[in-house]
Write a structure and sequence with these properties.
The protein is α+β, with helices and mostly antiparallel strands and about 60 residues long. It has one domain (about 5-59): Ribosomal protein L30/L7 (Ribosomal Protein L30, Chain: A, 2-Layer Sandwich), CATH 3.30.1390. The chain has two helices and three strands; from the N terminus they run E-H-E-H-E. A three-stranded antiparallel beta sheet has the order 2-1-3, with no helix packed on it. Helix 1 crosses helix 2. Part of the 50S ribosomal subunit. It comes from Mucilaginibacter arboris. This is Large ribosomal subunit protein uL30.
Length: about 60
């Protein structure tokens, strides 16, 4: 499967609890932190729900 690099670009302060938990599940805790993950359906769905807080690039 393809890998994607997800980088947090905005803070989760003042966001809903659901969005905070999604960011935690993706492994993101700080602004400018990046993770590389497999691009499966679950991950793509999580990224889509917090797309205003992250930047995504294909690897």
């Amino acid at each position: 499967m393809a890998k994607i690099k997800i980088t947090q670009v905005k803070s989760v302060i003042d966001r809903s609890e659901r969005q905070k938990l999604t960011m935690k599940a993706l492994g993101l805790r700080k602004i400018s932190q990046s993770v590389e993950v497999e691009a499966n359906d679950a991950i793509v769905g999580m990224v889509r729900s917090v797309n205003h807080l992250v930047a995504v690039e294909n690897i």
